[in-house]
Amino acid sequence: MFKGLKPIIYGGREVWPLVEGGKGVAATNHASSGAWAAAGGIGTISAVNADSYDADGNVIPQIFHEPTRQGRHAELIEYGIKGAVAQIERAYEIAAGRGAININILWEMGGAQPILHGILERTRGMVTGVTCGAGMPYKLSEIAASYGVYYFPIISSARAFRALWKRAYHKAAEWMGAVVYEDPWLAGGHNGLSNAEDPLRPEDPYPRVKALRDTMRAEGISDDVPIVMAGGVWCLREWENWIDNPELGQISFQFGTRPLLTQESPIPQTWKDKLRTLEPGDVLLHRFSPTGFYSSAVKTPFLRELMARSERQIPFSKVEAGDHIVQLDVGVKGKNFWVTPDDRERARHWAREGFVTALKTPDDTIVFVTPESRETIRTDQANCMGCLSHCQFSSWKDHDDFTTGRLADPRSFCIQKTLQSIAHGGDVENNLMFAGHAAYRFKQDPFYSNNFTPTVQQLVDRILTGD
């Protein structure tokens, strides 16, 4: 047992202060989270478009039949509830009364509130807590408390937590199970980097977490309410000065990336194999997500194409103005595209390379793509099923008039399509592969040498030694 590490009381029982991070679409399911709970920790099911099963136990593909976006959105909500319920029931059975089962949702996912209500209504007594980030989930505490489950808000600064506490959480303080501090520079998936923070200048998490604890204490929150350190956590030995530290109060640790490479992990073998090959710097903090948030993913050809697409971008004016003194003569129809002479030459060069189609963005720029890419972009936008509350790629909004009112952005992509694909056996090179920035350590850690893939129990046992 690693020095100073002690069980905590959560949901009426002792559990290890080790939390499995709930990841993406179907990247954390009943098998991994149930096993994590059975090992004595807090297992976390991803309740984001989770898989449901037919009578033979086969995954039911999420196929959408309704002709309208609103109709497909209603189908998505039903899929989301049924899938999460199926995952929770299976995980609860695997855990067999040990540890605890949490679920993870994104506040910015489409239909987050009806999905969360539907899940918790149908799984009473099975779910101990709800972890939630990707946005400012003010309603999280009210919904969780109404079902008698704990809530774990994910934040990346003391300021964000204070806003949530003042507006809503103080009304349900007794149901706050923990506060997850997610390092916005190191965590995988969507990150809470603010506009005031530099994506290229990571900050030491210790003073940020200390500021969070100071804020919690100022609001009268007990030190027994854990802060869960998430993002960049690989082994406890590297966090020794955080454990049993009176400045920080009770600290737990969330492991998001390491559980991907376990026998129970549901991700395809090709994805697991890819994780073993990563080098430092192979994970990119980027802003291509249709949520508008920063997120971290492996630099696959899919991500590199998004990078290249944005680089093939020039601003334009609808009238001759300033430096925009020549008319664009490639990629567009009509004469109301005024650009600089240099940008016209760049556009001509791209056209000669096959990027002959120009698509307008919401920022008065145009990007140049191949006809095949244009067809994919337009098809994916037309097939939108409303998986986000606000989608920059399709201009969908899940309430009011169902549109953001902005031009659909071709620099982004359909996140539902690519995450479903990679989780269910699609090409790992040509889909979005979320990962934390410590993923390169799979290749360096001797624990994984000779292609060793641990069970979740073996991984938890290893973590408990400090390694």
Describe this structure in words.
- The chain is of the alpha/beta class and 467 residues long.
- Helices cover 30% and strands 16% of the residues.
- It has 13 helices and 18 strands.
- The protein has helices at residues 30-38, 69-95, 112-122, 140-146, 158-167, 205-218, 269-275, 301-311, 341-352, 371-382, 415-423, 441-444, 456-464, and strands spanning 8-10, 13-15, 18-20, 42-46, 100-106, 129-133, 150-155, 179-182, 189-191, 227-230, 251-255, 283-286, 294-298, 313-315, 326-327, 338-339, 357-360, 365-369.
- An 8-stranded parallel β-sheet has the order 3-11-10-8-7-6-5-4. The protein has a 3-stranded antiparallel β-sheet with strand order 9-13-12, with no helix packed on it.
- A hairpin with a 2-residue loop joins strand 1 (8-10) and strand 2.
- It is globular and about 70 Å long.
- The relative contact order is 0.14.
- The mean pLDDT is 95.
Summary keywords:
467 residues; alpha/beta; TIM Barrel; eight-stranded parallel beta sheet; three-stranded antiparallel beta sheet
By CATH, the topology of the largest domain is TIM Barrel
**How much strand?**
15-25%
Terminal Cα span: 11 Å
How many H/I helices?
13
Give, in spatial order, the strands making up the sheet with the most strands: 3-11-10-8-7-6-5-4
Could you name the CATH class of the largest domain? Alpha Beta
Number of strands: 18
User: Which oligomeric state applies?
Assistant: single chain
Report the average pLDDT across residues. Answer: 95
CATH architecture of the largest domain: Alpha-Beta Barrel
Q: Name the helicity range.
A: 25-40%
